[in-house]
Every structure is written in C-alpha cells, then in structure tokens.
Design a protein that fits this description.
By secondary structure, the protein is mainly α. The chain has one domain. 74% of the residues lie in helices and 0% in strands. Helix 2 packs antiparallel against helix 6, helix 3 crosses helix 10 and helix 6 packs parallel to helix 8. 42% of the residues are buried.
C-alpha cells in the first residue's frame, strides 16, 4: 500500500515537471530523465510490477498528451478558425497554416522514425542531457543577441513555407534530450526572421502532430496490461500535466512579450552544472 502511494506521488511530481517544462525552452524530456533518476521514477526504481520500462514509456506519452491538450484548449479559437477558413484561396487561410505545420514536421519525423531506438539507447541518460542543457543554453544566448531584434514576421499567420522548413530543420536538434524542442524551434524562428512570440506559438502548434505521432508509435510499441496503481498514476499524471501546462503556457507568452529569454539560458547553465556535479560525484 505504501509502495503504491509513493509511486503515485512520484507520478504527480513527474506530471508537474512535464507540465512546467514541455513548452518552456528548458527541455521537458531532459528534466523528466533527471528528476526521474533523482526520485527513483525509472526502470529499477521500484517493484518491477509497476516500474516496468514499457509502462514508464507509456506514462511519459500520456502526460505529454496532457500538456498537448492544454495547447488545444488555450488556442481552440485559432484551431477552430483555421478550419473554418481552410480554403487555399483565402488570405491567411487555415490550409496555409496547417501546410506550414506539416512541412515543418517532416525533418524531425523522418529522423525520429529512423533513429528513435538508437537515440533512446545512447542519449536518454543524465550525462548527455546535462551536456545538451549547456550546449543549448549558450546557443540560445548567442542567437537571441544576434537575431531576436531582426524579425520580419510578427504572427504565425504570416510565416512562409521556407521559414516553416527552416524551423522544422532546427526542430531535429530536439531529438537530443536536453536540447529542448521549444528552444530549438524558437532559435530557428529567430534565425529565419520570426518574432519571439510567433516562433514560440509556432513551436506550440508543431508539438501537436509531433507529439501525437510520437505518442501513437510509442503506444503501439509499448502496449501493456495495467494494474490499478498504474491506472491511477496515469490518470493523475495526465490531469496534473494538463493543468500545470495550461497555466505555464499562458504565463510564458505574457513573459515573452516583455522580457528576453536569457533567463531560461541561465537556468539551463545552472542546472547543467549542478547535474554534472551530481553525476561525477556518483549521486545519480
């Protein structure tokens, strides 16, 4: 009984981490790997009946879908309007918007399908994540200083196919856990002339097909029979992730309209250094 309660409590913690970090430029996957190791929410962290690799993979997928649902709720009017104004002949049409999303998803989709297993085997550990946090932080600082103020595109409706492809190529960097899909796409957006808010919102919408597609593949690959504690943990993790992401995304956009992103880069540097210290002292 106590073991099950601890397991559910850990699931809540991971759900909070996912909800906070999924759309911030700090890497949700990286944080879940790090926090999972720190609290023992990983394979071998407890009884095999509830801490199996297949279940933990499914849990990660489910709570990510919770965070994705927050985007659907927050941007429902935009999503609904895009389908009501879908005709390619209309200005700023929904067809153009979703076509840009589609082409931007192609590069990471191809690489993800081809190399997902190898990436998980080699990079889903604290050390590669810590290095990625540092690399991404310094790149973010450089890109923001050089490109942020030089934008030509203010809104996601004005993004061109060429810009969408460039952002999609940068999204491939997020296959390295710790780099952050949000950070990679926002940096790509800066470089091709998007405003920070346009780049951030485009990254939110990119997450919809990317995460739903990745989730479908993962569920098909890791389908498992669930016991009651696992079902409860999945449900609670999903709800917590959704609620937290709902709050965080709204606050993040408000922040970007007024403040630079270097605060996230500084945070990444601090976390990366702390993690390297914990790794080399064998705490994790």
């Amino acid at each position: 009984m106590v073991t099950n309660l601890i397991f559910i409590l850990k699931a809540i913690i991971i759900g909070i981490v996912e909800g906070i970090t999924e759309f911030l430029p700090v890497s949700s996957t990286g944080h879940m790997i790090i926090v999972g190791h720190l609290i023992g929410f990983n394979e071998g962290g407890g009884p095999a009946a509830i801490y199996s690799k297949a279940y933990l993979n499914m849990f990660e997928v489910v709570i990510q879908l919770g965070a994705i649902l927050a985007i659907v709720v927050l941007y429902w009017n935009k999503i609904k309007g895009s389908f009501e104004n879908f005709s390619p002949s209309k200005p700023k049409s929904g067809f153009k918007f979703w076509f840009n999303i589609f082409v931007a998803c192609i590069p990471a989709g191809i690489l993800g399908i081809l190399f997902k297993d190898k990436i998980e085997a080699k990079l889903f550990y604290p050390l590669p994540v810590s290095i990625a946090l540092l690399v991404g932080a310094f790149w973010m600082l450089y890109a923001e200083k050089k490109y942020r103020r030089k934008f030509t595109t203010r809104t996601i409706d004005d993004i061109t196919v060429k810009q969408a492809i460039i952002v999609g190529i940068f999204q491939c960097l997020a296959l390295w856990p710790g780099m952050s899909r949000s950070a990679s796409t926002i940096i790509g957006g800066w470089i091709c002339g998007l405003s920070t808010v346009a780049a951030a919102e485009f990254s939110f919408f990119l997450a919809l097909p990317v995460m739903v597609g990745a989730s479908a593949l993962s569920i098909l690959k890791h389908t498992v029979a669930l016991n009651i504690p696992q079902v409860i943990a999945l449900t609670v993790g999903f709800v917590v992730s959704f609620i937290v992401a709902l709050i965080v995304v709204d606050k993040f956009i408000t922040f970007l309209k007024k403040k630079p992103m270097r605060v996230f880069a500084i945070y990444r540097v601090l976390i990366g250094i702390i993690m390297l210290g914990l790794i080399f002292t064998q705490v994790i």
